[in-house]
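User: Hi! Is it possible to get a structure for several chains at once, not just one? Here's what I have:
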Amino acid sequence: MNAQKTFEHTLAKHHQSHTRTRQQVFDALAHHANLSMRELTRRCSNVDRASVYRSVKLFEQLGIIVRIPHGWKYRLELGEAFHEHHHHATCDTCGASIALPEDSTLEDRLQELASRRHFRLTSHQIELHGQCQNCQNN
Amino acid sequence: MNAQKTFEHTLAKHHQSHTRTRQQVFDALAHHANLSMRELTRRCSNVDRASVYRSVKLFEQLGIIVRIPHGWKYRLELGEAFHEHHHHATCDTCGASIALPEDSTLEDRLQELASRRHFRLTSHQIELHGQCQNCQNN
DNA sequence: TGTCAATTTGCGACACATTTGCAATAGTGG
DNA sequence: CCACTATTGCAAATGTGTCGCAAATTGACA
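Assistant: Yes, the chains can be modeled jointly so their relative placement is included. Here is the combined structure:
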């Protein structure tokens, strides 16, 4: 199932309308990974800011998108129904965001750590900081 | 070396003044782990809010504190020179923040993942979400 | 396809968070 | 202790996220 179908299907499953506005917000997110809220509103220039916020909140609840911690703020990207689960590294020099390969050992360790505190783990985010290959060479 | 000495030493090493304001901000952070910015400014009531922000930014650059992702926001706590490196789990039911044991396997995996993308890793943050033991029993 | 009820949107206004410029003040080195 | 520089407080600007409400859009169904 392609991204567009998955999107429409997810909305329908939760009895939410497939509107022009939501489609525009989804398109922006689908075409540009790792958008900040500011970038997203810029790319949806004919959609009111409040509506973008409302769509983002809804999409997050439906699992269509996830919030990725990024410094003091966060970025948005499509959720696991669209991408394989993965994490990101942020280059502190140029600000680039690099997607990292999936790694089940890592996920297992987290599960194990949580268990030791009798914590029932439902989700997690990892934020790496450092310097990307390009910036190391400058 | 105790926390206070480490603090003064870190400032001196970076040619930064040890001022009354910075000391107050540091004290608040040293006595209460996991403060939000709002809580921090409340605890530094005789320090101007803008100065608290300026101190926090400086402390973060010097590694005196780290920002811990916490939902859409973040919390502050003393850096690695003051505490052993660790991560937190946030209970989505009651909001509690649970410190997790250190785990070198985990850290090694992250290092490995970063290397595969030729990324030079300098720091990382992990945020776990789920339900704490107490809330599971209710 | 047209109509209607329900949902969603845009707008304006608000509340709160964070940053900035600048004059006054406090800290540092000699 | 003085003079110089860095830091602070203040006030104002900017940024982020939310809300109420009237108007527009959507989905269901005739």
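Residues 53 and 99 of chain B are 25 Å apart (CA to CA). The helical segments of chain B are 3-13, 20-31, 37-43, 49-62, 104-116, 133-136.

User: Great, thank you!
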